[in-house]
Amino acid sequence: MTTTRLAGHALVEALMAQGIDTVFGVPGESYLAVLDGFHEHRERIRFVVCRHEGGASFMAEAQGKLAGWPGVCFVTRGPGASNAAIGLHTAFQDSTPMVLFIGQVASDQRDREAFQELDYRQVFGPGTLGMAKWVAEVQHADRLPEYVARAFHTALQGRPGPVVLVLPEDMLTTPTAAPVLPCVVPVLAWPAPGALRDLRTMLMLAERPLAIVGGSGWTAKSARDLQRFVEAWQLPVGCGFRFQDTFDNRHALYAGDVGIGINPKLAARVRDADLVLAIGVRLGEMTTGGYSHLAVPRPAQKLVHLHAGAEELGRVYAADLLLQCSLGVAGQALATLEPPPGLPRWADWTTSAHADYEANHVAPTVVPLDMAQVVKTVQRLAPPDTVYTNGAGNFSGWLNRYTRYFGLQHHGRTQLAPTSGAMGYGVPAAVAAALLYPARTVVNIAGDGDFQMTGQELATARAHGAGVGSGKLISIVVDNGTFGTIRMHQEREYPGRVSGSDLNANPDFAALARAYGWHAARVAVTRDFEPAFAAALVADGPTLIHLKLDADVSTPRTTLAALRAAALKSRSG
Ligand SMILES: Cc1ncc(C[n+]2csc(CCOP(=O)(O)OP(=O)(O)O)c2C)c(N)n1
Known about the structure:
Elements (H helix, E strand, L loop, with lengths): L4 E2 H11 L4 E4 L6 H9 L5 E4 L3 H15 L3 E5 L2 H17 L3 E7 L15 H5 L9 E4 L6 H13 L5 E7 H4 L2 E2 L16 H13 L3 E5 L6 H14 L3 E4 L13 E5 L5 H9 L2 E5 L22 E6 L13 E4 L2 H9 L11 H15 L9 H11 L5 E4 L5 H7 L5 H4 L3 E2 L9 H11 L5 E6 H7 L2 H7 L9 E7 L4 H10 L15 H7 L3 E5 L5 H8 L6 E6 L11 H13 L1
Parallel strand pairs: 2-3, 2-4, 4-5, 5-7, 6-7, 9-10, 9-12, 10-11, 12-13, 13-14, 15-16, 15-17, 17-18, 18-20, 19-20
Antiparallel strand pairs: 1-8
Thiamine diphosphate (TPP) binds next to helix 17 and helix 19.
């Protein structure tokens, strides 16, 4: 027998039944009964109060990415929900399981455009090109447990993603005796045996196969099994855009990341392959080089696409073989394919793919501040299970190129980065990771533009004790005084005509961090970075390192001056 309590309390109990012990949010008067439920159960579940709903929704998204289990966010009506949209969109594009709860006006006031009212089904979808897999407004307190269980199933099954549950205020204050439902067990899809046999036949006929792996829903076991599969077949492996931690970057089969700033040799290899196995990744714009490495709709290469979501299969490409399979069992399914005896005929192709990756890891020296050395120093000094986070901007190019992510079978996910390209993701993601794994070190690399979108979450970190235990929390801000990515595009398309891309009144980031109670250091030359980072690794609290970088240093491959000169030359020629 469940005793009668407010539906707001029942909701908190339902979340605890789903294994949730941390939620992120910004309060609102629309869901006071839920906040009271968090107070009631404060020994078992914590409400991490954030400074902005964008930060809160990014934190919940990061929680979903790290745990492979829905991250949970609470926000208030119209203004709160609007601010939270960025985390929802990121969860959708990144296929991250997440549940966003939004307070709503009381049911007897609906459709009057009451204070802060929004119609969330209209705003957030659902739709396959949208913001959420499912949006529902709970009208009956007794059905709350049913909605919560469905939200968790929906977020986790098929292609994982975000779900929105809308909570009218009066519904939350209604008493209910409805018992909560047990923790969901998501259903895993397996490929048909015939499809696996066809895949084996295609591999047996291939001359230059290449696997591109990534996507959401891998488990440690499945990633280990994936490694067994590619080892048995000696397949070169690329990781999809911002899924670089799916396969061990130190492995002799690793060929590099197939995303923005791809090694040109790897791009050529994707084009030269005669069989591409896309395992778990969406065949989106970033992983296909703007739909160019693989021609649309019928690629020159034979294409096999394995994905958890039926709607992703055949979405863009007319592939030769489609397999619907949850990534939690994909490794196991693939590892059943019996390899041919002896080394396959593509052994040289595989060896040279890894050699290309290694050559791309060698960095030219840059003065006075060498970002490649910064990133390499971070990885040399930081513990092996360190979680790396970033938002969007050219600064992330150095992190992507020079960090060797370990396969997620070792320490779970270690790359928290938005495939949606959302600026502002890195700081909140780092705070969330530090709160969820207090014994692990978390390193965020942010651009100056990127940092200033969510930098106020430094306060959230302090308020909730992030980075004060054995695990350190370190944010490295790459301050080049410009929205450098946009400046890069401008120099290519409209050389010398800088417009709307300056960031010329930046704060002193180190002073700002100190004001938030963080340690801070400022670095302008390469040799000062290592001592600053080493100090951060033993500091008794979080540290921000402010890097001053010349704006001309555009990417790991080029400078603004070179881009401008090339663009002007091509115009005059
Ligand atoms: C929320 C959001 N707004 C705008 C953009 C477009 N955008 C992509 S990168 C970028 C500039 C990033 O600047 P910064 O963080 O300083 O990094 P940099 O490129 O200079 O290394 C902008 C404005 C975006 N991706 N996300």
